Amino acid sequence: MTSRRRLLPLLIFLLFTAIGLLLFSYRYLDDLAGHRYGTLVQRFIEEMTGVYAALPIVPIARYVGRRFSWCRATWPTALAANLAALVVYSALHTTLMALSRALIFPLAGLGAYDYGDMVLRYPMEASNDAVFYAIAAGFVFFIRREARARRAELEAVELRGRLAQATLENLRLQLHPHFLFNALNAISAVMYEDVGRADAMLAKLSEFLRTVLASSDVQQVSIGDEIDVERMYLDVMRARLERGLRFDVRVARGAEAASVPFLVLQPLLENAIRHGMAGEREAIAIEVDVAREGAQTVISVADDGVGPPPAGVRRGRGLANVESRLRVLFGEGATSCALEARAAGGSQVTLRFPFTTAGAGTS
Hints:
The protein folds into two domains: 2-155, no CATH class; 194-361, Histidine kinase-like ATPase, C-terminal domain (Heat Shock Protein 90). It is rod-shaped, with a radius of gyration of 38 Å. The model has no long low-confidence stretch (mean pLDDT 81). By secondary structure, it is of the alpha+beta class. The protein is 64% helix and 12% strand. The strands form two sheets. Strands 2-4-5-7-6 form a five-stranded mixed beta sheet, covered by helices on one side. The chain is built from ten helices and seven strands.
């Protein structure tokens, strides 16, 4: 942006120079067409001084355009300000042309320059100046409107980004009390049966929460880091279930560098344990498969528990939370959390979202 601003004066100068050369060619060729010869230098000086003397139109029009906006409520003020600026510009333009030509003509060997009766010259030049001022003011207006639109668009993008970040943070914070409630209930159920196991669960829970809080500003992590954190969570549950919990992870080749939302698996694992062990079950096996399919990361969490709830039962908060996080992070690129029954018994949840590497996906 700074380099563009430094380049702008040069571009304006080159533009005015090009306009001056075009006007000069028009006037000189008109002289030749009328059999008026020997006017090359005179026409060149007249047209170039006329154009360069018009350079003040840019800062004047820009200043007025910034101070007085064209809208329904303020257009009379803006019109009056531009008319006043036109008078100032035209008087300045005509004076600069007269002075510069009076100085340059003798130096070029053309003798004294006769600009005619200045009382009439000022209103005469004002008619041309009005056209050029209107063009310059129009350019300033449209450039400023484009800049405002671009700025508003950037602010809207930033606002959407902040809103998405706040939404993600809110969704992630929802996990903490929900998880703590379930974890503390589990510890409470064990406490009166086996104080040692309850103490071990509290120690594992403390370690897990310390890791989660240390990563409070992270939205995405590598799949390896996510699995490590989830193993800590399952250690809390394993202390309650003892040998009743088996956990296997398979990461396919090509998916090792995948970036995933932080704690995206925790609600799925919690659901697998909580709902999969409903009734009299005392053991459960959970399998997590991570693969890359084209431009997507595909994660499935399967268990051999009692299976998904009957059709028509409202989805739990955990799945809804995961689905919302994926939608905010990836938009239309993320599919819904697909919950289905396994043919061999149990449930399976499949997540699909755009594949990104850990370095690109961490925020």
